[in-house]
């Protein structure tokens, strides 16, 4: 450490040069905004989805919906109150002429937007105009498309737009959706634009914008916290510079290796900020305590500038191991996410492990100059309420010392009550709940799903013979009938099949010839379900997005079970790929389900990794086991509370366990290090007093900074980020309880018994310094 302090200024200049050189590279780091990136390339559902897009031209639909006072041309002055009442009117069902003109004009404008597959645009005006002028046929068609192109109220209609694959579009997906929304805003009345592509785009847009803004806000707030705590420009600029440099270098390295940010890793900058600030704070507090201790023993010691390098050397020597081990255990916490099945989560794991390593290196590059350079280096100031904090810590330490059984019983009771709640955790797959109720996307979804039908799109696709036969189509009709029977009592799901099209009256000469006749007049109606070149067919399902997670998962499982049983009983219907329900609706539902199962695995891996690190760091299995309990405690309390109050797990809360473990264990390391250092000369009781007065104070300061940084996320517009920030803050507050109550209790119970010579003069000096430190400004 002496050598680092000697070359401290060279290190600082070198770091500045590296950061400046890395800035252009860091700007090249892109944000991957595809939901497919969340899954492995060989994921069965993703494979089926990609094949379906290749066979049928895509499954990414945007619905532009609105209501018309008189959608249909009916002679009655009083317009019917529902679609069923409209169909009872003894006239040929037709769209009102003025409305039909508006629909076609709007459809033409929307279809001309780059990125929209205009040939596949569907709307009610063209659908009925191309249909036979035969009442039963048109009535059957309207019933078939109820919930997609016409609502139950007989007034709401929509234009269904199919988006081109992003790589085939002339402009970006963001520009395509922006133009669609601009056209919708020019239309008459209240117009809603929704669909899974819109939800996914809005999700990524909000995450990217929030990540950028909240990073800067959290940095400013943490800078204010540092100023309040230490009241010195040096003690603000150094940690902030360390954080900014670490973020820039990390982003530059990621750009060099071709990595991309995702929705999950968008929090990288904010997490690096709190890790860097918390680590710096522990070092600054320890440095301040050494300076104050020196001042107590020799008031003249802080005069010459030559003393500063010596104190900096001692600080870095004593803090080097804690810094390395805290960064390593933090990296282990993030690395535990490598067990996830979600690709961006694994990428986030690697990114944060890399970033933590960069922070560790930055500490040894930036802090030597921070602690030693300058001829008039002032001691970091004390917080105005720090004397009160010292008394509170002393009271806390004595309470644990005098009432260990009561303290232990309270901790055990909280833990036992919380654990059953962990097994009551539920999934949140209602994608709309990722956004605030006041957001445009939620309001659009509510409009469409209450007046028109479900906005969630999925399908069942399968192989067909080279030529469709009546026998095959009747088999598929039986499957369709089974699916209809399965969902008859469920208004949140609609099923559309090619056999429904073939069953439109007049039913002449069998379903195969009926389809051929319909295809000649309305080819798009058939092509939406059947690709004769690829010999593939699909049954399309539309589901309501705004429904409970249990019901959504149950729908998927019921449909899959029905399809599997049907094809298992018909081995003559040979299939290249086992038919199954797939689509964006299914992928989004499985995403959260996978995150929940990954959470338990990553928690086990994080705990095991941290246990090994702590055993090596302190050369004691006893201390390694003890260090886990205070960090498992807040995780169990928070996750158990979520289960008991029935709060569903979303994308943000699903990574709390491993991230929390990696962050809270840092303070545990600093506390145990201080305890073990004092234990060399002190009794257990005295060592706990020394650790509480020194490391305990730093634990409170560091957690205040961490909580302040993560609470900024509660201002996000993307709800999972709000949950992530709030729940991680609660876990960190619980971490303070674990480190300052549960950990001292466990150390007291398990530490080797004191010898008669434990309380020597050196220990008495340490205790005196700890107790009198609050008298030094």
From TrEMBL:
Keyword Transmembrane tagged? yes
Residue span(s) of domain Membrane transport protein MMPL: 145-379, 499-750
Q: How does it sit in the membrane?
A: Multi-pass membrane protein
Transmembrane parts of this sequence: 213-230, 237-257, 263-285, 323-342, 348-372, 405-423, 625-645, 651-673, 694-716, 722-747
Where is the protein localized?
Answer: Cell membrane
Alphabetically ordered keywords of this record: Cell membrane, Membrane, Transmembrane, Transmembrane helix
Q: Which GO terms describe its cellular component?
A: plasma membrane
Protein name from the UniProt record = Efflux transporter, putative, hydrophobe/amphiphile efflux-3 (HAE3) family
For this protein's source organism, the top of the classification is:
Bacteria, Pseudomonadati, Planctomycetota, Planctomycetia, Planctomycetales
